[in-house]
Hints:
Helix content of chain A is 77%, strand content 0%. The first copy, chain A, is mostly helical. Chains in contact: A-B, A-C, B-C. At the B-C interface, helix 2 and helix 4 of B face helix 2, helix 6 and helix 9 of C.
Amino acid sequence: MVQDLYxxxxxxxxxxxxxxxxxxxxxxxxVRKNFDVFGIAVLAEVTALGGGIFRDLMIGAVPPAAFTDLxxxxxxxxxxxxxxxxxxxxxxxxxxxxxxDAAGLGLFCVTGAVKAYAYxxxxxxxxxxxxxxxxxxxxxxxxxANEVPSLLRWDRDLYAVPAVVGATLVVLFIDHGMLNGATxxxxxxxxxxxxxxxxxxxxxxxxxxxxxxxxAEREEG
Amino acid sequence: MVQDLYxxxxxxxxxxxxxxxxxxxxxxxxVRKNFDVFGIAVLAEVTALGGGIFRDLMIGAVPPAAFTDLxxxxxxxxxxxxxxxxxxxxxxxxxxxxxxDAAGLGLFCVTGAVKAYAYxxxxxxxxxxxxxxxxxxxxxxxxxANEVPSLLRWDRDLYAVPAVVGATLVVLFIDHGMLNGATxxxxxxxxxxxxxxxxxxxxxxxxxxxxxxxxAEREEG
Amino acid sequence: MVQDLYxxxxxxxxxxxxxxxxxxxxxxxxVRKNFDVFGIAVLAEVTALGGGIFRDLMIGAVPPAAFTDLxxxxxxxxxxxxxxxxxxxxxxxxxxxxxxDAAGLGLFCVTGAVKAYAYxxxxxxxxxxxxxxxxxxxxxxxxxANEVPSLLRWDRDLYAVPAVVGATLVVLFIDHGMLNGATxxxxxxxxxxxxxxxxxxxxxxxxxxxxxxxxAEREEG
Lengths: 221, 221, 221
């Protein structure tokens, strides 16, 4: 059974930690958008749990874990209270938040891919759903806040690509019968380091941009 | 079986009435956004049925009731025709629309929570899904109309909080074995009155706002 | 078994062709929105597969076909590479793209309705889900790109109405026991021709518009 990478209590603690850091990014965006305390709670919940709910719907794991584990639901509410009172301090800790978010990204893409595979999906689909678990909540957060998803924008440091690498690593490990706690941790750490490097050196993905402007210039000229 | 709060025909009539009033808010927004008649119909359907479809997906009740009960589907089309021809009159009846909407809010959060519990979800998850049933359609309406969901905005009178109270009441009744037609009606009426009071006295939820502006001023000064 | 309209290999080839043309519209919008290459891929995937995933969730066909057929997933990635390098040329072929898109619209509304019926839904619900299969991906594309769905806008040539006609034709054929490869093709071609005519003659659906402006004028005057 591939799902038991870690002891269940450790797995659960890691999940809650990932939910915690993702909820912070949702709550902070809600504060910036001037939402009320209920809006902060909604955005914290959606950001933290949205990716996992999407994955669970796709693999037929209903009700999604977000609705059966009380800790998953309560964690974003704790974040809501913290951010409600302490948001200037949390904003000032942005670097720290980003570092924990990178860890959450790695954790969720690995556990998401493993869960999808455990529910019988193929290797490619499992990697895709690992990616969706990790980034889906952020996309829902931005859609609800009526913003262009930061995931899709060219002017943001690489976020999804590290998760793609991590999810691909995981399914390669599965395919070669090598998935265990150590290799899963290796995949998480790989995502974590790639994301930190992307932030440090402002790595970005290319746009299909230059040629269009050339054409536009040619047509204008 | 907790689902039989009312006689089935009464329950169905109430559901259709709730769908009717929710569809009005979707259709009116579509008119304001200058959508064509097809867009009016889509927004009416999504607003009226979106919350219930979301709940049914989460609890594994597929196909959702919205796709198995023809009355649920046809009601928003009737609303579309009405609003298409009579929207100035309907707009002028805004107060009346809001009052019926408050009744729909109460009804949907109660029946949504009861259905989720009947499908085996826990008390907290049932309350959350009751809330989602009542407000989910409105969120989808605003997302499709490319607006910030009015649910999340601080400058709107309390909408979700009455539904939170109602859904909480319902699961408390369930937990104490006290849920029946009378107590369910009590929960609906509680939501209804709270929402009317929120509109009358412009109750709003607090924002995490003042401290940020203080910080901004301090940093600017 | 109503699902076998065409030989499986032909059906699959048609599906992939439909996914291909829908992915183009997603990828081109991503280029116009200045998204990076990852954003182009996401929008291509969502546009091409979103409608089918929605339908499969509603009818309980999980995991959705988009996650079990590798060709469905890889096709939008091929489109991403093409559009990334050749988008000025693809833009210039807009008329050709629109013609293929019209064919995809017809194909998806027919196969979507047939699949929904095969999963036990009623005739009306099957028609609705056929429509949702055909237009759902485009709505998700516009929501992710933070634009008002072009489906809902009055200033676009009819897009959904041809699909409504086609889906209605299909369920009428089913209801009269007349659905086969020939009648299904007739429905696809009907959608195709109606959509081409709508583009050629700029057919639009009416808005609930004039009366409001009359009222506004009366109130202003």
